[in-house]
Structure formats: structure tokens, C-alpha cells
Amino acid sequence: MDSGLQRYRGPLLLILSGAVLAASAMANHPQAEAQSLFGAEPVSAGSTLAIAQRLGNDRWTLALVERLLPGRHCWREQSDGSVKLRTHDFLRPGLCSRVHSSSSYSLRAAGEDLPTTWRVRIEAVGNRLELQAFNPSQPTPIVIGVSQKPSAMAAGPDIVPSFRLNPGWGFEKRSYEGRLLSHLYLSSPQPIGAELSASRGLPVAPPPLPTRAEPRMLVSPQPDQVIALEVVPFRNP
Known about the structure:
By secondary structure, the protein is α+β, with helices and mostly antiparallel strands. Helix content is about 20%, strand content about 35%. The chain has helices at about 5-30, 30-35, 85-90, 190-200; strands at about 40, 50-55, 60-65, 75, 80-85, 95-100, 105-110, 110-115, 120-125, 130-135, 140-150, 160, 165, 170-175, 180-190. It has a five-stranded mixed beta sheet. A four-stranded antiparallel beta sheet has the order 9-10-11-13. The radius of gyration is 29 Å and the shape is globular.
């Protein structure tokens, strides 16, 4: 092998190894990369709803409906807390939006995207429905919102349960470099650990108070006081 190539072979292998490790780390932590890329902005009050759609045998799936054009109704609230969707508004683009795919929404807490191990589901509990955030590694889900099973369900497929979100939870839209995207968040300002503690009935520790440095008292030396000074020996370089 040429002596010049042999001389650079070691450093070149180190550079390539570092690049491979960096690429592997990014592939293993895609959520961290997403957190560094995306921000979020709150949506207008009353412009977005979480609704439950029946799958059969008391099984339900989540959909998010959004009013895209101000002044459009898109839905009408019922006396039992359900909503009646105005189907014809959803058929015209740019008026109302309805998303079913879990790739179109996700969870966010304390300003960070939660890992994809956190998901959203609807659980029937007695005569009500719970909108839950759950993680298979956690024994207790977090209840995001609740809804009553609508008594008017038999009146038509367009009447669906609407969730009332628990205090602190709301809707946001993903942003990238100041531009709003269509992706929706179910978000809480609290860290996910605090939400988990609240769901288990555990006390949530308050944030630590800012510490204040104690003022240092300056003492003037007395006229006859000897002050010892540290002498650094000189060394000839």
C-alpha cells in the first residue's frame, strides 16, 4: 500500500466510525430529532373537537374535527353533550376537516413531543367514554377528557360523542420555522411525570423556588490588621 494512504488510513477510519455512530444514534432516537425540529401554537378556542366514532360492540375510535374557515359551523351541539356533524360542510374542501389517522395527531407535554410509545385511545367506562393517553410501560393511563354515551345515537350516524377535555389539556398545531402545519396535538403544559402522578392520585411536587444568593458582607480591615496574601511562586518557563 502507498505510504501516503497508509499514513491517513487510521484517521480516516476514525472519522467514518464516528459518522456511523452518529447516524445510528439519530435512527434510534427519531423523537428527539422531532423535538428539535417542531414547535406548537394554540388553536382558536372552539375551533377543534375530539369526537368518538363507533366501531361496534362498544368499541370506539378517535377523530379530530376542525373548523378551517371562520363563520362555518361544521357541527351543532346537542343537549346531551354530543354533536351533530354538518356532513355537507366536510365534503367541501377548505371549510371543515376531520382526521382519523393517528399519524395526523399526537401527544405533547411541557412543550415537548412525547415518544411514540404514548398513544391515545377511547375506553368505555360504564355510561361514559374516557379519552386516555396511555403507555404500555405505565400501569395507569392519563384521562385527557370524558364524554357521555349519547342517548340520541339512534337518530343518525352524524350524531357523535364529543369530549370535554380535562383542565390543562387543549389543542395545538405543529409549527416548523414559524409556519403552521396540519398536524394536531393534544397537549398539556405539565410534564408527563406530573400528569402520571395526578392520574395515580399522588401529590405533585411544586416546582422548586428560585434560590437567592446570600449577600456577602464586606468588612474593612483595621489599621493595624495584617492581611495574609497568597504568594504564587514564579516559575521560569
